[in-house]
Amino acid sequence: MAIETVEAIPLRRDLGERFANAQKWIDSREYCLVRVVDESGTEGWGECWGPVAGNREVIEEYVGPWLRGRDPQAVESIHDDLRYRLRSSYHSYVPVSALSGVDIALWDLKGKRLGTSVARLLGGHTRSEVRAYATGHFWPDVDSFEAVRESVVAEAEGHVDAGFDALKNKIGLERIFPDRGRAADVELVRSIREAVGDDVRLMTDANHAYDPGDARWVGERLADLDVHFFEEPVVPRDKRGYARLNEALEVSLAGGECWAFLDEFDECLDRGCVDYLQPDVTSAGGLTTMRRVADLARARNAGLYPHVFGSAVALAASLQLLATLPDVPEPMLEFDRTPNPIREDLAVSPIRNSGTTVPIRDEPGLGIEIDRDVLSAFRTD
Ligand code: CA
Description:
Elements (H helix, E strand, L loop, with lengths): L2 E18 L4 E14 L4 E6 L3 H16 L7 H16 L5 H19 L3 H4 L7 E7 L3 E2 L4 H17 L4 E5 L12 H14 L4 E5 L6 H13 L2 E5 L7 H10 L3 E4 L5 H11 L4 E2 L8 H15 L2 E2 L7 H11 L10 E4 L4 H5 L11 E3 L12 H7 L3
Helix pairs in contact: 1-3, 2-3, 5-6, 9-10
The structure holds calcium ion.
Calcium ion binds next to loops.
């Protein structure tokens, strides 16, 4: 049963209100989904990280013609061949998000062909639900730090009311309020801590806003606020800086959404860059890389908190990996709570939290069915 169809499907939705983190304003959500169908008509769905442009061209013009006619069951050899081929064709730049989307679709297809969940193919379920942390707390388009703080604190209280006991917010406010400096970031986290109390696990994400000195200054103060991890303090390429900070600071560092493939995560753990790895299934190399990184994390006793900021496909794929992880260190799901109809509505049966956890499905493939009407409504080509 060879692969017959490889399709890139662009989805886009403008947001009613834009919001920011330390790197950018976000005014739309855009995804490039991948659909792979074999001769039997079984289909698999995947998702690429980043904008549609680039991913679509790589998949349709380069990957698709090469993939058609191959055996879809050979997921890992396709993964490795594709990495080699993309690297040799694009020199130092590997379009890893396109590879990731194809890889996820092949795992989904394989599970559906065999009538089993991807989690079972990856080693089996060690859990049927996973603790989820509410991610969000981006900054609204308002004039003052006080107004940002009011919005973020209200959002945090809302997540606790919705049942969550773990939250992650955004810091690096100096970009928007230069006169407030790095102290505003600590003040923001302190305000959230005071609002939600000591029993809620707090995490904070700088989206690599800082130079090493500011990162150390902020990190020292985050420990006093019992912050569980300090995410992406410095630019992802500065692995020496990560290692120095992680050694110097009491608060644990987390990172990995900008890293890809087993060898880069291996290097980061080897250097002691972070205590918690955050590979993204849509950009790290798909579920094949996620499983390899999970094995690496298990061997090194490192935590694994997959980065998730995608559609229902990325969320479902991340849950299948999370199902298989050991209990210690306890994994967590990054559960994006920003308003996003593509994430909410794309699966016929939406993925929702039940109190502090999100249930993990044990159904064929990724465990979701794509709603064709929703797909058509958000399709942009
Ligand atoms: Ca992040």
